[in-house]
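job 3f2a | input accepted
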Amino acid sequence: MNSSPNTERTRLARELHDGLAQELASLGYRLDQIIGSNNLDNTNRAPLRQIRFSISGLINQVRDEIFELRTNESKSFREQLDQQLATILTHTDIAYEVSGECEVKSDQHFELLRAVRELVVNAMRHGSCSIIKIKLTSNQIQVEDNGIGGMVIKKESYGLVGVSERLIKIGAKIQFISQSSGSLIIIAL
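job 3f2a | predicted structure (189 res):
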């Protein structure tokens, strides 16, 4: 365990815990009070529950980051990806599958998780898909959906532009294959 209270990693973990993690938990508790109110109708309760699940997912991600900073240990890329997808796709009709394994360099880990997360969110929100498959291999990550296609990087597509920027930063390349039967995104490591 990284027990020295003066290391930079420990300081960052402490700041995350005392700041962001506590604020997210507080926000979640306040939202729980609103959701539980007798004055709230069911039409408004459902979207608030979705927001609550998203906040819970964020809290879990921050806790994982704190754990990694304090212990120098990390869950595997696949484990973290699977956990994030379960959170993102909770209460949707989208089925997902993660197959294979891949070793991700520590300096690529965060950026790759965020990039794949954005691709999944994009497929969920804009692709009208019902299935998302992620295949991990030693030198690439494939994200495939059965949605409506049409995925193209445009100047105003901030999510996909951000994904490309993240991947360029870590020396990875991305390829988009999109047609009316869905999209396939290949990230070459």
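job 3f2a | The chain has a mean pLDDT of 88.
job 3f2a | closed
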